[in-house]
Amino acid sequence: MAHIGILTSGGDCPGLNAVIRACVLCGIRRSDDTFIGFVDGWRGVLDRNTIDLDWMSVRGISKLGGTILGTSRTNPLGEGGGIEHVRTNLKALGVDVLIAIGGEGTLAAAKILSDAGIPIIGVPKTVDNDLSATDYTFGFDTAVEIATEAIDRLKTTGESHHRCMIAEVMGRNAGWIALHAGMATSAHAILIPEQRSNLAEICEWVQKPFRRGRAPLIVVAEGFISEEMAQPHYARGLDAFNRPRFGGIGERLAPIIEERTGIETRATTLGHIQRGGVPSASDRVLATRLGIAAVGAVHDRDWGSMVAVRATDIVRVNLAEALDSLKTVPQQRYDEAAILFG
């Protein structure tokens, strides 16, 4: 029997509630564990702001988007926090181990705390699918489905007005959402951070389908950098982990393409719509399996580990492995899509 704390931190993501439900039900049924949830991620740990999690509180939440615990981009090691502050608060609340559900920033903080002797188990979460130690993260499948549906709609209005349409999707420094959504919607160009295409090449990809009587479609990842750019486009400063808040590359490209090609061009940034709404069936299943596995790691006292998916198996890896490198789109995957550009 253990008293387990759970937090969801960083950007929200479809499937978070399914993880919470699986952890709580698995822990109660197998070991009579008790649970508390920290409100708004690491901020809840710093402020000792918690809610009790029991059988009734997680009933029916797997299908809900977002997170019932709330989330934030609070850095627990920043101002007002620190390792000893976290340790003291967890001890005061009687928490034996913390399950941290999050992406790169959340798990980086979790590793530092774990290295300092605080019992932590990680669960990977990001729509960007960019964590290197797991084949897929829950939320990615839903984000791609949402992006695909939205881009399909953009195509029809583009065809009606004979315009070039640009759809900007999330992904930070990885192009997985753009690649999958672009291939699914038969985009005439897919622009991702891993490939620094130049403006002349992009304009040629736009002009080719237009000459055939088609409305050109470009899918661009928010972290894309053209050969003419020195860094990704961001105008909203940095987050709590000193990472750029990307967004706006589509609007930056649209007038350039229109000026160079003479083709009327419009850009749409899908933004946070990709993270909202109900999770797909695939994400619900993956999130549930990871939640069950996280409780298993708790009872094996496998501190500092993260549950992950390899092929169809759920495995455990060290948090350091999860943060070792960014999982980016390999050249072969991009080349497959690029055959159909233009």
TrEMBL record:
GO terms for molecular function: 6-phosphofructokinase activity; AMP binding; ATP binding; diphosphate-fructose-6-phosphate 1-phosphotransferase activity; fructose-6-phosphate binding; identical protein binding; metal ion binding; monosaccharide binding. GO terms for biological process: canonical glycolysis; fructose 1,6-bisphosphate metabolic process; fructose 6-phosphate metabolic process. Pathway: Carbohydrate degradation; glycolysis; D-glyceraldehyde 3-phosphate and glycerone phosphate from D-glucose: step 3/4. SUPFAM superfamilies: Phosphofructokinase (SSF53784). Keywords: ATP-binding, Cytoplasm, Glycolysis, Kinase, Magnesium, Metal-binding, Nucleotide-binding, Transferase. Its EC number is 2.7.1.11. Substrate binds at residues 126-128, 163, 170-172, 222, 266, 272-275. GO terms for cellular component: 6-phosphofructokinase complex. Residues 4-297 form the Phosphofructokinase domain. Pfam families: PFK. It catalyses: beta-D-fructose 6-phosphate + ATP = beta-D-fructose 1,6-bisphosphate + ADP + H(+). Mg(2+) binds at residue 104. PANTHER family: ATP-DEPENDENT 6-PHOSPHOFRUCTOKINASE 3 (PTHR13697:SF52), PHOSPHOFRUCTOKINASE (PTHR13697). Belongs to the phosphofructokinase type A (PFKA) family. Mixed-substrate PFK group III subfamily. This is ATP-dependent 6-phosphofructokinase. It comes from Cryobacterium serini.
